[in-house]
Design brief:
7-stranded parallel β-sheet, 257 residues, single chain
């Protein structure tokens, strides 16, 4: 079942948000192939069922819960449902994220609210719901999927950048408050990932080319490169990495101009 994977998460339970496609789906699959029992939530129930079937096809265990994480009540209900199904949650990956590219002068307030609710409030609520169980067991890891949009402004991404800057700040507070309970909190901050959402915004090569030119390594991220970082931060090999942001941007942050 595990194949040639580096980490062994046998005996661990993992909850992944935004797991129906892209990075979330790949993260859930990789944890499952590494031996973990996984709980997955997203809006698309049919896509979650397909993921569940795939994980079960190689002997893995997957519980699913459809939820719109922009709704606080659904967010908390999904956390409770999956925690109950799994028995407890050892690792939480707050991955769900959305973006509505538009310039500031065209900003749609509904888009603003939904972006902040999914990208920032949902991680806070999922962590609020699951941290008590981790505290009681004095064991846990939370990985928040941020973005290098938390390091600088990106045109047409006012709400998205605001949400990711906020997520980095939230993660620092979580690290301060949860660290004494042996719960590690970190973020991954990738540049564009070649997922459906990434391709929707940056799939036009004419639009993407100027951004790629600013990346010293000259390309966007493959999904597997981000899942590798997430599993590392969740593993015991990262036992003293806490309150950090692992930037995966091909060197963009190293450039002064």
């Amino acid at each position: 079942m595990k194949g040639n994977l580096k980490y062994d998460f046998t005996g661990y339970t993992v909850l992944v948000t935004g797991a129906s496609k892209g990075l979330g789906r790949a993260t859930a699959l990789t944890f499952a192939r590494s031996g973990a029992r996984v709980g997955c939530c997203a809006r698309n129930e049919e896509a979650l069922k397909d993921l569940q079937k795939e994980i079960e096809s190689f002997g893995g265990v997957c519980h699913i819960q459809a939820a719109d994480l922009s709704d606080s009540s659904q967010c908390l209900a999904a956390a409770a449902s999956l925690e109950n199904a799994l028995g407890h949650v050892d690792i939480l990956v707050n991955n769900a994220g959305i973006s509505f590219p538009e310039i500031l002068t065209d900003l749609d307030t509904d888009h603003w609210d939904k972006t902040l609710n999914v990208n920032l409030r949902a991680p806070a609520l999922m962590s609020k719901a699951l941290a008590p169980g981790m505290i009681s067991r004095r064991k846990g890891a939370i990985i928040n999927v941020s973005s290098n949009a938390s390091l600088g402004g990106i045109e047409e991404h006012a709400a998205y950048c605001a949400s990711k800057y906020g997520l980095e700040g939230l993660s620092k507070v979580m690290a301060v408050e949860l660290g004494p309970h042996n719960i590690r909190v970190n973020t991954v901050a990738p540049t564009v990932i070649l997922t459906p959402m990434g391709l929707e915004v940056w799939g036009d090569e004419e639009k993407a080319a100027p951004l790629k030119e600013k990346i010293p390594l000259g390309r966007f991220l493959e999904t597997e490169e981000v899942t590798a970082a997430i599993l590392f931060l969740a593993s015991e090999e990262a036992a003293m990495i806490h309150g950090e942001s692992l930037v995966l941007d091909g060197g963009v942050n190293a450039c002064l101009y």
